[in-house]
Design a protein that fits this description.
The complex is a heterodimer.
Chain A (H helix, E strand, L loop, with lengths): L11 H10 L4 E2 H11 L8 H14 L2 E4 L14 E4 L1 H23 L6
Chain B lengths: L2 H11 L4 H24 L4 H33 L7 H18 L1 H30 L10 E7 L11 H10 L3 E15 L5 E8 L3 H5 L5 E2 L4 H5 L4 E4 L1 H8 L9 E4 L2 E8 L20 E4 L4 H4 L9 E6 L5 H19 L2 H5 L5 E6 H41 L1 H9 L4 H35 L16 H33 L9 H41 L9 E7 L8 H17 L3 E7 L9 E6 L12 E9 L1 H5 L3 E4 L13 E5 H7 L9 E4 L9 E7 L14 E5 L5 H6 L7 E8 L7 H11 L6 E5 H7 L2 H35 L1 H9 L4 H34 L11 H27 L3 H7 L1
Parallel strand pairs in B: 3-8, 5-7, 14-19, 16-18
Antiparallel strand pairs in B: 1-9, 1-10, 2-3, 2-6, 2-9, 4-7, 5-8, 6-7, 11-20, 11-21, 12-14, 12-20, 13-14, 13-17, 15-18, 16-19, 17-18
Helix pairs in contact in B: 1-2, 1-3, 2-3, 4-5, 4-15, 5-13, 5-15, 5-16, 6-11, 13-16, 13-17, 13-24, 14-16, 15-16, 17-24, 17-26, 17-27, 18-22, 24-26, 24-27, 25-28, 26-27
The chains are: A mainly alpha, B alpha+beta.
Chain lengths: 114, 914
């Protein structure tokens, strides 16, 4: 497995955003809603920090902006859509493996039920 | 959606940087609105939602800004940004230059301050050169204007035209499209508050047309007014503003000149000076102009009263040489056809010469102004050498920064450009401050009224001065920036991030060589300025040591001019001055009082004379001498020493035998080996002379035309022996315009009030002018020499100081680089004296090399100064030795500080450093 050159640990918000984009391109509100649903309302990405993090992710090359699909129309107009890059996928996968390793440890130490 | 929420969101958006907001505006506001809806659905209060939105926006905008800063910094280090145009990257470098200012304020202030002083001095001197020499005279087509002079073949100096000669010349000359005469006089202006003396010029009606100067108000004189002695006047702009409050209704008003009513017919435009300082005679800028209208006495004055200046405009196509040869012919014709035959029989011959007006006006100051400009440019060069050194040192400190920039992709050209732009930012600030300083200094210099610089009123900050300031600013930016830029970029190209690049052997040697060259050049230039300044200062010293022939302490002088209307008869004039002498002589504290037509160092009158039984040997000499008419105890008041015979006394009045007193030079030249006392002489030529005058005394020489001019032959006659008719007619205006001289036994200033009271008691309307001590009169005559010497001396001193700073700085750097080496030497047993000597040797070697180059250059340069020197040769050994010693002393002092520091290095501490 090729090791990604990305940071050893991803900031939690970045991980969540990458997870949201893992299966499909989404716009900002879409990402927010996806995270909200997945975490059952526990993690709320407020728009300010959401967009700031998106712009950093674009800068780091983990995410790219793409044109919105033809059929999408929300509120004011056609919003920016984001798509995860191969580098982004590898980074998210690495982060997931890192977390999974901790989960394994927790199971062995009987903190979690197998 | 609630309107308050929308407003709140709109407000929060303003927290973000503008470009970010523009990019994410729609999404951020949609997002915030959506979040708010979710929260409200979850039952949160409106206030809570608003606070949560604000917290998010504050946090995010803070992060966005710091992201931006980090991004910019990383690009800046490389000095590049993808997709930037050249212009954008230059803007980046300029901004970087400004950041440098903030990061190193002391360093920047030092550079900006040095440059501001040097550029300021340059701008000030250039504005003088520009206003006086470069800008054309403010007349139409001034290159065609010439001044014409008369002269005697045997007498070296040219002089002005007599009235009949001018009339004859104007009738005959064909080379000119216009000819005009003018003459400086003084009038009492009354009727406007206090009566005062105004500088007036009598002018031909055609003068202003000839100059091509349109009047600002009113009209020119007519030719009828010129010939008919009409009482009309034209005001200068200055007098119009000062006395008449710039009132346009002044035309047609009546003013009183010498208590006679004149009608104002015109006002000249602003900025017009006429006549100018500079030419031989009639060189006082006038406040007021009246028609020349020669009197009958003037028109009949053949072979005397050569006191009118003549200006002409050459016709197109006529060369100065053609006009000169025409003038020569006219001079012959005048004697043959116009002069009474007796002058011809007497062998009178005239010459006429011509000079371009501009040469005559500014010719006398051209050389000194260019010398000062050259000196101040040299000061700037020396200053830039210092700054180059500073920037080189700083470049060494910034080596790692440069390495990072190189690593991030900045090319060599880019680094050079960046450092040049940094220098440009510093130079631009220095230039701006310097231009302000220069403007201020120019005004300061111009307000020193005792310096009679030609065209002084025209010195101003015009576009040419501004371009000059910009030019030298850019030039100094290039000079200061290019060497450090080249060096540090060169180093980067090779050594990149190597930690000790600054100390690698080759770089050290190279840099030492550059520093050495800079210091050597500085001292070479400094010695040239020092010797030049030394020569001028020595010359002024000689000038001030000159014996003026008078005792200068405790003498006060003032002048009065009697208007012809009130004092119409000769006896009126005689009575006034006799009463003045009596009354002033009685004033407490006054020990001797006399009057004269002219004071020493400014004797205007020159007369032709005949000796009764001439020695054959002196027949060929020019029989023209300076002359002064005196009354009372003139010689006693001035302290003029009698050599043989006696002074004039009260008994030498109208009825007594006509007598004359002369100076030693006159006696020696015309009665070689004989005491002339008891002999006789007369005014005029051998066949045309007037009554004989007996020589009764010979007195010590008194300077006539300034301290730097050797004494001419001079005579004095009793003013009382002038016939009433001449006092009344006053053709030359000098007999009723006398200067009173008093010797006091108390401080002279303390008697001024009582003097004014005495004059007022005789004539309450009469203005008293030019109240000065004799010391003032004498020092005014050397004002411009002293000014030039002190300016050049100041430049030389500045140059030396800057060079000293240069060598001290270079040695200090060298000592700090060699700290460990010196530590090893000391540890191995070198004595501290050896170290001291070693560093001193290093510094002085550079200084001596500078001297070796600069001294021969000085010998060459000083020859250019020779016409400006008085009493010292261009290779005056005292000036050269003094300059060299001063330079060595200062250089030694400058080298001593770093040398002492080197000798005090603690070997153990030094060895631990590296």
């Amino acid at each position: 497995v090729p090791k990604p050159p990305s940071p050893v640990s991803l900031p939690p918000h970045w991980f969540q955003i990458l997870l949201a984009l893992a299966d499909q391109d989404r716009h900002g509100l879409g990402i927010m809603n996806d995270v909200l649903e997945r975490t059952e309302g526990r993690l709320k990405l407020w728009p300010g920090m959401l967009y700031r993090n998106l712009s950093r992710l674009v800068e780091e090359g983990l995410v790219v902006e793409v044109d919105a699909p033809e059929d999408v129309e929300t509120g004011g107009g056609r919003p920016r859509f984001y798509r995860i890059t191969p580098l982004g996928k590898r980074s998210a996968a690495a982060e997931a493996e890192r977390l999974a390793a901790f989960v394994d440890v927790a199971r062995r130490k009987k903190l979690l039920k197998a | 959606m609630a309107a308050p929420l929308q407003r709140w969101i709109g407000w929060l958006l303003h927290l973000y940087p503008r470009d970010y907001r523009r990019r994410y505006d729609a999404e951020l506001s949609d997002g915030m609105a959506a979040c708010a809806a979710i929260e409200r659905a979850a039952g949160r209060s409106a206030i809570g939602i608003a606070v949560a939105l604000a917290t998010d926006a504050l946090r995010a905008s803070f992060h966005v800004r710091s992201d931006g800063r980090r991004r910019r910094r990383s690009f800046r280090m490389a000095g590049i940004r993808q997709g930037d145009s050249t212009m954008q990257s230059i803007v980046y470098d300029l901004r970087e230059g400004l950041r440098l200012l903030r990061r190193a304020p002391l360093f920047s202030a030092l550079i900006i301050g040095t440059l501001a002083l040097a550029i300021g001095a340059n701008t000030a001197i250039f504005s003088l050169v520009n206003g006086v020499l470069l800008r054309a005279l403010p007349y139409q087509d001034p290159s065609r204007l010439v001044l014409v002079y008369e002269g005697f073949p045997s007498y070296g100096r040219p002089f002005g035209f007599s009235a009949p000669d001018f009339v004859g010349f104007r009738e005959r000359a064909r080379s000119y499209s216009g000819l005009a005469a003018f003459r400086s006089v003084e009038y009492e202006l009354s009727g406007q508050d206090q009566p005062e003396r105004v500088r007036t010029t009598r002018v031909s009606a055609s003068l202003f047309d000839l100059l091509g100067v349109p009047l600002a108000l009113g009209r020119n004189f007519t030719s009828e007014e010129d010939s008919g002695r009409q009482p009309v006047a034209i005001l200068s702009d200055g007098l119009w503003r000062r006395k008449f409050g710039a009132d346009a209704g002044v035309i047609g008003r009546t003013i009183n000149l010498d208590r006679r009513a004149y009608t104002v017919v015109g006002v000249l435009p602003r900025g017009l000076t006429f006549p100018n300082h500079g030419p031989l005679l009639n060189n006082t800028p006038a406040d007021l102009y009246v028609p020349l209208s020669f009197s009958d006495a003037e028109l009949g004055a053949f072979a005397s009263m050569y006191n009118n200046s003549v200006i002409g405009r050459l016709k197109p196509g006529v060369s100065p040489a053609q006009a000169t040869s025409e003038a020569r012919d006219i001079a012959k014709t005048l004697i043959a056809d116009v002069y009474p035959p007796v002058f011809r029989e007497n062998g009178l011959s005239l010459t006429m010469t011509m000079t371009p007006l501009a040469d005559d006006v500014v010719g006398g100051v051209r050389r000194i102004l260019y010398v000062l400009l050259a000196a101040v440019v040299v000061v700037l060069l020396i200053a830039t050498a210092d700054i180059t050194g500073l920037m080189l040192t700083r470049a060494a400190v910034r080596e790692r920064e440069m390495a990072v920039r190189t690593a991030l992709g900045a090319g060599r050209a880019r680094l050079i450009r960046m450092m040049l732009l940094e220098a440009a930012v510093l130079a631009a600030l220095g230039g701006l401050a310097g231009a302000g300083l220069g403007w201020w200094a120019t005004r300061g210099v111009m307000s020193i009224t005792s310096i009679e610089l030609p065209r002084a009123a025209e010195v101003s900050f015009d576009s040419r001065v501004v371009f000059f300031a910009i030019g030298i600013t850019l030039g100094s930016a290039l000079l200061c920036g290019i060497v450090p830029a080249w060096e540090s970029s060169r180093r980067q190209a090779g050594t990149a991030l190597k930690e000790s690049a600054g100390r690698s052997g080759t770089a050290g040697v190279r840099q030492r060589r550059i520093f050495g060259t800079l210091v050597t050049a500085q001292f070479a230039f400094a010695i040239v300025l020092l010797t030049s300044g030394g020569l001028l200062i020595r010359s002024v010293g000689r000038l001030l040591d000159t014996d003026p022939g008078v005792r200068r302490e405790n003498v006060i002088t003032f002048s009065t001019s009697l208007p012809a209307t009130t004092y119409s008869k000769g006896s009126d004039v005689r009575e006034f001055y006799q009463r003045l002498l009596t009354r002033v002589g009685r004033t407490p504290g006054v020990s001797a009082v006399g009057t004269a037509t002219d004071l020493p160092v400014s004797v205007r009158e020159r007369r032709a004379f005949t000796i009764e039984t001439p020695n054959e040997a002196v027949a060929g000499l020019p029989h023209v001498i300076a002359h002064d008419w005196v009354n009372g105890q003139y010689f006693e008041a001035l302290g003029i020493r009698v050599v043989s015979g006696r002074y004039l006394t009260e008994q030498d009045g109208t009825g007594a035998e006509r007598i004359i007193v002369m100076n030693e030079t006159m006696a020696r030249r015309f009665w070689p080996g004989v005491n002339p006392v008891g002999r006789r002489m007369a005014w005029g030529g051998a066949r045309t002379h007037g009554p004989w005058m007996r020589i009764v005394g010979v007195v010590a020489d008194v300077k006539q035309a300034g301290l730097s001019v050797p004494a001419e032959p001079q005579t004095w006659t009793p003013w009382l022996q002038l016939p009433d008719a001449e006092l009344a007619q006053n053709p030359t205006g000098i007999f009723r315009n006398l200067t009173t001289v008093l010797r006091t036994s108390v401080p002279p200033a303390s008697v001024v009030t009582s003097l004014r009271q005495e004059v007022r008691a005789i004539d309450p309307l009469l203005p008293v002018s030019d109240v000065k001590t004799l010391n003032d009169v004498l020092s005014e005559s050397t004002a411009s020499e002293r000014f030039n010497a002190s300016l050049l001396g100041a430049f030389a001193g500045t140059a030396l100081l800057l060079a000293a700073i240069g060598v001290a700085g270079v040695l200090a750097i060298s000592v700090s680089r060699r700290t460990s080496e010196i530590g090893i030497r000391l540890a191995l047993g070198a004595r501290r004296g050896d170290v001291l000597a070693m560093v001193l040797r290093q510094g002085l070697a550079l200084v001596l090399l500078g001297l070796a180059i600069g001294l021969p250059l000085s010998f060459f340069v000083s020859r250019l100064l020779s016409t400006l020197l008085f009493g010292v040769g261009p290779h005056d050994p005292i000036a050269f030795a003094g300059a060299t010693l001063l330079l060595l002393a200062v250089a030694l002092a400058a080298c001593a500080a770093p040398a002492l520091r080197a000798s005090r290095i603690d070997p153990m501490a030094a060895l631990r450093i590296d």
